[in-house]
Amino acid sequence: MKEIVRAAIAILLVSAILLYVVNAMEKSSATIGGGSISVYNWGEYIDPELIDQFEEETNISVVYETFDSNESMMTKIEQGGTTYDVAMPSEYAIEKMKENDLLHPMDHELLPNLENIDPYFLDLPFDPGNEYSIPYFWGTVGIAFNPTLLEGQTFESWDDLWNPTLEQEVILVDSAREVIGMGLNSLGYSLNSTDMGELREATDKLKTMGPNVKAIIGDEIVEMMRREEAAVAVTWSGQAADMMWINEDIDYVVPEEGSNLWFDNMVIPKTAGNVEGAHAFINFMLDAEVAAQNADYVGYSTPNEEAIALMDPEVTGDERFYPPEELRERLEVYENLGLEMLGIYNELFLEFKMDMEN
Amino acid sequence: MKDNPSRPLYLVPYYIWIALFVIAPIALIFYFSFLDLTGAFTLENYQNFFSSVYLRMTLSSFWYAFLITVITILIAYPTAYWLTKTKHKQLWLLLIIIPSWINLLLKAYAFIGIFGLYGPANKLLQTLGAGPWQILFTDFSFIFVSVYIFIPFMVLPIFNSLDKINPALIDASRDLGASSFTTFRRVIFPMAINGVKSGVQAVFIPALSLFVITRLIAGNKVITLGTAIEQQFLVTQNWGMGSTIAVFLILFMIIIMMLTGHKEKGGAYNGKTK
């Protein structure tokens, strides 16, 4: 009994000390100047040096947290109890957050650097007039492959993924809309299809890909491809850029039937505690030099025209990552299909995972 | 202590705890399972659960959990038996338990490296003249890693109940002419059965709802009820359906607890660590 009491007291003491230290640290960081903001971003989606630079320039300290899917980010913000000041959702998530009244309107007066952005990426259907969101990065969904592990196989069409020579070689990204969308695209249907017949057909077609599927995973794809564990992966352009950074053999292609064009924008959640600081951060990220450095680090495509002018033309001229406008025509942006449709997509995805022919 | 009139007062914190952290969550899960996406009352979730996708998922979860449990017993029982015979029991036991202190994710990532095409497992196979084989993202790797993770949870209760058997009983059995097999079958096994039951509870139930390993080690080619719950809550945001699956999981757990419950007074043989 005595020992238990002693142990309990020890734990309480340690906790109290830790609590005190945390408080003291928060206080000291808050007194520096402009307070603090908390940024909620995708993993591996910012150059950490830029955060230091921002803190130095503005005296606003940054608390940085990451999420791994639009849905988990939204769920967390919706439940409250968080005070994220800046978040980086994708377009369909922004639409939904707008619907649910989770976003704080942008004050364009505080964002003079907005003029650096290519007008193509402004005033898009999911947020007319950029009332709630400011472009951060954009990209595509396509096929990353390693020619040295394949015998001359190329990927012009999604159907090439069904080629019997690719047995156990294809990794798919663990995301319902990307995979079902790929099935829809390969049949010539729209990525945003809500037609049950088309969705059923796409799922049934995907199931026949079973023998070729090695795994359905998330961020681990990059590591798998780098280490040549797999030859082919269906993934986002930026992940492909990450792979190519390390393993130069890897190539990336957007199949001709079309694919997804996506935008990740910066938003200020309704629950933000420091709206002014959030604007300062967004404006900072829009700065040409900052955006160029960030794009170099992250590997995704920047919508910042002025930044592109500062970057290596070999990178920005690469049509795989900066497809010209006529190529973008073939690509489709995800629409917010509503919770019910999202549920159906996920159920079909689950069914695909369970029924893959081995 | 028994005569202390203020005893019920001491129990108040425990009642509050149980009400807040056991009863309330279960009640909430039950409540949510009757709600649809818009928050209206519905029985659709239950109807949906009996559709072919979820039924087959349940069956396959059970099958994998069963395999994992059986293999874990096959490994853990002899280990625990042998442990009771060694000199430094506690040291050996500690060595078996220590890996369970390491975070599950960390272990899963380690296995990704070990089982990779260029990992040590395949290096070994190659020097033996076989392979390289695709080990990662197969049923084999999934079961192997799960068994590895669950072994300590099976060894511990079995060891505890074996260790508590009075050696005089075994001597008596021998003196009365029983062979060592008969001694095991008639004396040791029945007396340690409660340890096995506790072990089964500690392994089978979590195995039904594994979800990190299904993605990292099985590449989502094995789908368990846990995967489905995670997806319903985080991706689909259909809390109703997620809760419905959770309700069934709770039901399965209750059934398993009843099947492996202790009917006689033998409860003292297990549960108490050391």
Automatic annotation (TrEMBL), chain A:
Query: Would you tell me the protein name for this molecule?
Result: ABC transporter substrate-binding protein
Q: Where in the cell is it found?
A: Periplasm
Q: Which UniProt keywords apply?
A: Periplasm, Signal, Transport
* Domain of life per record: Bacteria
Q: Does the keyword rRNA-binding apply?
A: no
Q: Which organism is it from?
A: Planococcus wigleyi
Matching entries from Gene3D superfamilies are given as: Periplasmic binding protein-like II
Q: Which InterPro entries match?
A: SBP, Sperm_putr-bd
Give yes or no: UniProt keyword Chaperone: no
Automatic annotation (TrEMBL), chain B:
Q: Which UniProt keywords apply?
A: Cell membrane, Membrane, Transmembrane, Transmembrane helix, Transport
- Ranges that cross the membrane: 12-34, 62-84, 91-115, 135-159, 199-218, 238-259
Membrane topology per the entry is: Multi-pass membrane protein
Recorded protein name is ABC transporter permease
Query: Which Gene3D superfamilies does this UniProt record tie to the protein?
Result: MetI-like
Family under the similarity heading: Belongs to the binding-protein-dependent transport system permease family. CysTW subfamily.
Q: Which domain of life is it from?
A: Bacteria
Q: Where is it localised?
A: Cell membrane
Q: Which residues form the ABC transmembrane type-1 domain?
A: 58-260
Q: Which residues form the signal peptide?
A: none
Q: What is its main location?
A: membrane
- PROSITE patterns cross-referenced by the UniProt entry: ABC_TM1
Query: By its UniProt entry, which SUPFAM superfamilies does this protein fall under?
Result: MetI-like
Q: Does the keyword Transport apply?
A: yes
InterPro entries cross-referenced by the UniProt entry? MetI-like, MetI-like_sf
